[in-house]
Amino acid sequence: MDLGLRGKVFLVTGGTRGIGLATTRTLLEEGADVLVAARTAHSIERARAELAEHPRADFVQVDLRAPEGGRRAVTAAVERFGPLDGVVNNASGFSIDHGHPDRAAWLELFELKVLGYEAVIQAALEHLRDGGSIVSISGIASMRYWPLSPHVSAVNSAVEALTRHYAAALVGRRIRVNTVVPGTTATDRYEGRVERARAQGGVDAETARKLIDSTVPLGRPVDPTEIAATIVYLSSRLSASTTGATVVVDGGAVVVPDSALPSAGSR
Ligand SMILES: NC(=O)c1ccc[n+]([C@@H]2O[C@H](COP(=O)([O-])OP(=O)(O)OC[C@H]3O[C@@H](n4cnc5c(N)ncnc54)[C@H](OP(=O)(O)O)[C@@H]3O)[C@@H](O)[C@H]2O)c1
């Protein structure tokens, strides 16, 4: 299937690791040019090395929590590759604590995933071709209880609301706006959960991994390439009639209650 992405120009935020890196790689393999925006020089250098065989990838170091961050990322993409065909709002990061999130934790996430995504969209609208695409990444905490994470639930819900707003606002320009909603996905964040479960439960890493995997109805974390494939599909002409959608890729976690999981009997 030809996705029609050859020569198209994309901005991917948080494209140096996990889901963002997998998305960047898939877009490059489909022939697109990709400008990746991320916060640290370290993650940029690592991603640059991993994508060394792709001359059409470039990077900008920018803090997307900063008021001018979104504009800086968009400007870097346009200066490097020209007008945009697609934007992927994916950057995320929050401190994990063991208590109710304090005000600083709320602000950290809100500034990045709500104000930051909004700033990227606003700056991109001046340079996004009519018929282009915006995909934002939320997470299943918007749809089900996630202990100690009301800020993650609220912020991911806001990401989905932003998508619906811009999907409606931009139909006149045929710019499609969609959300992809990952469940537990095998990125650095998953490895962090394994480490915490290991330390808290006093179990080995293999047992901790099995415990976490048993909370995913399909029995394993989602692979970042599976989320990337959904993002790239929604960024392509194959989804030309899809806008305002919220597409869940979670191994069944939203529709299967914990009490119906195969592991529930042994808890
Ligand atoms: N992984 C999961 O299980 C899961 C589940 C639900 C939803 N999601 C969502 O999926 C998306 C990707 O998750 P992931 O696990 O792949 O992420 P990740 O591995 O934590 O990577 C986050 C990316 O965002 C960048 N970033 C963080 N803070 C930034 C800032 N202030 N300015 C610019 N860039 C920043 C990071 O760059 P640096 O490394 O340079 O900081 C990195 O490239 C996120 O929106 C996340 O909320 C993930």
From TrEMBL:
UniProt KW keywords: Oxidoreductase
Top-rank taxon: Bacteria
SUPFAM superfamilies noted in UniProt: NAD(P)-binding Rossmann-fold domains (SSF51735)
InterPro entries registered for this protein in UniProt: NAD(P)-bd_dom_sf, SDR_DHRS6-like, SDR_fam
TM ranges: none
Entry keyword Oxidoreductase: yes
Pfam families to which the protein is assigned, alphabetical: adh_short_C2
Record flagged with keyword Oxidoreductase: yes
Similarity section: Belongs to the short-chain dehydrogenases/reductases (SDR) family.
Record protein name field: SDR family oxidoreductase
Organism annotation: Nocardia fusca
High-level lineage: Bacteria, Bacillati, Actinomycetota, Actinomycetes, Mycobacteriales
